[in-house]
Design goal:
There is one protein chain. The chain has one domain (about 20-135): NTF2-like, domain 1 (Nuclear Transport Factor 2, Chain: A), CATH 3.10.450. Helix content is about 45%, strand content about 30%. It has helices at about 1-20, 25-40, 45-50, 50-55, 60-75, and strands spanning about 75-90, 100-110, 110-120, 130-135. It contains five helices and four strands. It is of the alpha+beta class. The chain is globular, with a radius of gyration of 17 Å. Strands 1-2-3-4 form a four-stranded antiparallel sheet.
């Protein structure tokens, strides 16, 4: 009986954490899952999983071409570390909404110091999806 009680307590605690997750954390998770697709060369899938804003701005073939070109110049990813999270209603060049800019300090084989920005937007269905991506 005690074992069942511990399992129920663990389940309740875990569900409570998921429900209480901050918007920044949900957006960061969406950004991290998305950028792994890009790292793995799954450009078409990354386009499909991006926000409507992203998909309306760039067709799938155009995104694939851009991503392939950019990534071939950068070379293999060496490292990526979270640098900053910024929550806000506006991002330059994007319509008003609820955004989180996730910034990473990254390193690639051909670019040792890079700043990647993955901008996630809260969509009407309640899910965070990538609205923009840049690397400098």
């Amino acid at each position: 009986m005690r074992k069942i009680g511990l399992i129920l307590l663990f389940f309740t605690f875990t569900v409570g954490l998921a429900v209480a997750q901050a918007p920044e954390d949900k957006a960061r998770l969406a950004a991290e899952q998305w950028i792994v697709l890009v790292d793995d060369g799954q450009y078409e899938q990354s386009w499909k999983e991006a926000s409507k804003i992203f998909r309306d701005a760039l067709s799938s073939p155009d995104w694939q071409k851009k991503a392939e070109t950019d990534r071939s110049h950068l070379g293999q990813k060496q490292s990526r570390k979270l640098k900053d999270l910024k929550l806000g209603p506006t991002v330059k060049g994007l319509p008003a909404g609820q955004y989180v800019q996730v910034k990473y300090q990254s390193s690639y084989a051909n670019k040792k110091v890079a700043l990647e920005t993955v901008t996630a937007v809260l969509e009407p269905d309640g899910n965070w999806r990538v609205a923009a991506y840049s690397i400098n």
